[in-house]
Design a protein that fits this description.
Layout (H helix, E strand, L loop, with lengths): L1 H10 L2 H28 L9 H26 L4 H23 L5 H25 L9 H30 L3 H19 L18 H6 L1 H13 L4 H31 L4 H33 L1 H20 L4 H29 L2 H29 L7 H27 L2
Helix pairs in contact: 2-4, 2-5, 2-6, 2-7, 3-5, 3-9, 3-14, 4-5, 4-7, 5-14, 6-11, 6-13, 10-11, 10-13, 10-14, 10-15, 11-12, 11-13, 12-13, 12-15
């Protein structure tokens, strides 16, 4: 198979393997940490969780970073990305330990969320650095395959980390703090793995990679405006449209995730532990969908083009999401988890490829940081909308139909742009 052959070639690249190892360890730790937070906030027997509580937690964890994310991106283009990965993961080791202590100390909720917010902020910084560094370890002709393997493998690692956390929570220890400490061990392994790469390997191409912090912050606004102008230039119009499409699809994914959490907690299970098992199964099937996207997307994007593949993904979601979601039954929802995993990851691989192939290296850190901010804002907005719409048990026809309409709108708008874009090439 061409996919298997290309994958084997890609994995022979030593520096790619090293960067991939860092991603796998880092995102595996993210999966453990995120499930620990989910079980603490949503599935603790003593907590009566609501959609509004989930939305509030997402806002606390993600929205503040959305305000400072572009500034982090500007620094990412000034500092050596390898050092960012080392120190970012070491910082998360410390923060994970703090979170674990707060979980067992019965402190005010805001203090716990502040600690979790710090971990999330560093997490987005590290992910932006991994994406910006990827073209430095593969050739341009392998970029589509690299975008299939690397982010998708990272997502699968996060899913595996979540599965490990689920197993630990249900069989070994009911302590959410123990899961958080496990994530800290994995963050430490990611930092150590990063040290296997040369300090300057991952870029960026700047004569001075360690400016004074004050100097970097003063120049941030100017740099961000330059990045926006770079992205808005006619040769990169497809990147702008792909980012807009992916942001809306992320909104849909966030709304459906809140719906799934509420259904697993109340409508489809008889106890918090049963709901946790069902959620773990759904996330595992979603991870299988991510893997399927890694296999299908290089072939599909190669035949159709990345932009048209986004159209196909959004259109498929518009049809399948209501068909599988409206029964509000366990089996159709589990099938939907797989389908949406494939569709969402397939569209993300295509978007990453479009952005990386059209954006100059010196701007990638800033633009991928803005990319992450768009993801966060869309996710928080989706949680807020879900909180307004969802009933206590999570069964909402209105939300399912609304999400389908958004998917259909994305498919139609992106298809129209691709048609116009092709006519001008």
């Amino acid at each position: 198979m061409p996919v298997v052959r290309d994958l084997c070639v890609l994995l022979r690249l030593r520096n790619f393997r090293r960067l991939l190892a860092v991603r796998l360890l880092s995102q595996g730790a993210d999966g453990v940490y995120q499930i620990a937070l989910a079980t603490y906030v949503v599935f603790s027997p003593e907590k009566q969780t609501s959609a509004a509580a989930i939305a509030s937690a997402m806002a606390v964890l993600l929205l503040p970073y959305s305000l400072v994310g572009p500034f982090a991106g500007a620094l990412l283009d000034r500092w050596r990305r390898r050092q960012v990965l080392v120190y970012g993961n070491l910082l998360r080791v410390l923060l994970a330990a703090v979170t674990a202590v707060l979980m067992v100390s019965h402190v005010p909720a805001w203090l716990f969320y502040a600690s979790a917010l710090c971990v999330t902020a560093v997490n987005r910084f590290v992910l932006a650095g991994l994406s910006a560094a990827l073209p430095r370890v593969v050739g341009t002709e392998r970029l589509v395959m690299a975008n299939s393997v690397s982010p998708t493998a990272g997502t699968l690692a996060a899913t595996a980390g979540g599965g490990l956390a689920f197993a630990m929570r249900l069989t070994v220890s009911e302590s959410d703090a123990a899961m958080v400490l496990l994530s800290g061990v994995l963050y430490l392994c990611a930092a150590l793995a990063t040290l296997s790469m040369a300090p300057d390997l991952l870029g960026p191409d700047r004569a001075s990679t360690q400016p004074r912090l004050g100097t970097a912050l003063v120049g941030t606004t100017r740099d961000l405006l330059a990045a926006v102008r770079h992205l808005a230039a006619p040769p990169r119009r497809e990147a702008v449209w792909a980012l807009a499409a992916m942001t809306l699809m992320r909104f849909c994914y966030g709304a459906l995730l809140v719906l799934l959490l509420m259904l697993c907690r109340y409508a489809l299970s008889s106890s918090p532990d049963a709901g946790l098992r069902l959620l773990g199964l759904a996330l595992g099937l979603s991870g299988a969908g991510f893997f399927a996207a890694a296999v299908v997307t290089p072939w599909a994007a190669g035949r159709l083009g990345p932009g048209r593949w986004i159209v196909v993904c959004a259109a498929a979601a518009a049809v399948l999401e209501p068909a599988l979601g409206l029964p509000f039954a366990t089996v159709p929802l589990l099938i939907a988890a797989f389908v949406l995993g494939l569709i969402t990851q397939g569209a993300k691989i295509a978007t990453d490829t479009i952005v990386q192939s059209t954006v100059d290296d010196g701007f990638r850190g800033r633009i991928f940081s803005v990319y992450d901010v768009l993801f966060n804002v869309a996710f928080v907005a989706a949680a807020g909308v879900a909180a307004l719409i969802l009933p206590p048990d999570g069964r909402s026809t209105t939300l399912v139909v609304t999400v389908a309409v958004v998917y259909a709108t994305v498919a139609a708008a992106m298809a129209r742009f691709e048609q116009q874009y092709a006519s001008h090439q």
